[in-house]
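The data are quoted verbatim here:
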Amino acid sequence: MKKNCFVKRIFCVVAACFLFASSLCAISWSGVIDDNTKISTSEFLEFSLFQSNGVYFSVNSNLGDSGLRLSSECSYKYKTSIPFSSINSSTFTNVVDLLLLKLSGTWALSNGAISLNIGRFNYSDLSGVIFTQNSDGVYVSYDSMKLSAGIYAGYTGLQNSLNVSMLDSYNYDYDFYNLCAGYIPILANFAYKSFLKTNTIALQLSGFLEPKKDFSSKYYATVSLSGPVKTIGYYSFSTVLGTQEFTDLMLYSKLDFSFFIKKYLLGAGIEYASGNQFGLSSFKTVTYQTGYNSLSSPEKTEVILPKIFGILNFGDNSLSLTEKLVLSAEEKVHLTGLESSCSLIMNIFSDLQVSCNLLIYSSFYDKRTNNFALSAGSILSF
């Protein structure tokens, strides 16, 4: 009963915001219907079918001449899992969510611009591996030709745990809406865009506080460097030093090079995530980030990942291929497996997009971790 009341309150707030916006100015709206089907198997012995369909409805409005804009998006979808075995049972889950409810604005200053975002919206940390999902909070930023800075503070505990990617979660077993683990993310970032003339160097300090102490608070410092490689490509490097409750130390680093050749984007890179060695601990994130064996691994840990990738654009369509070598770094570095992925995205009409994704993980040592997944999806806009 409490949960249902909470959901009703959320949608009452949304309705009130719509009425407020409509009284000031015209509202624009749009919608999306999606379909996703995936078949996965381990060693082609245990097969599972995953199916989901959803409806997404968004409403946007400029609030008069204030420079503010109200953006919102709500959704309903169902998710079902059907294992083709007698061991596990099928599941069916209804999910309703308020994905976006944001008040935003940008105002010009003499040498740049200041921006404000407040409400529920997606936010990602500088590295892209620690925290990437919706949160309720405030982000204030300043941007100019040479400098940018920003600070974000929020709360994750009001998000729907059925529809986010947080690693820590409560053992709820309900439909529709379940509350997330209540972290308080606080992130501050600064970037200098003219480092060595054409490069950008950035620093971000972040803390994810857990006031209830149900889970560990986490703290990170991220440094990144990026820029052009002459006129034919681009590079990006980032490294993250983290700790849980200031009792351990963990490290993650990533380096990528991308080159543009006619219609092709070709690249190579390498990732490293620390394990329990050299005085370090296994690298842990706040939201779900796969390291290797993407079908089952919840975090990056004790692994080195060299990779090559390519993207071909033809018309409004694209084909991408990625090959990763999985090198374990637990005791000594040795090749443990291969992760191959292929993704095709086709825009059939202006309002219809279809996609197909293939992911294969092959282990050289433990055949039980071999995985294969094939998924297909479509998005229809209205």
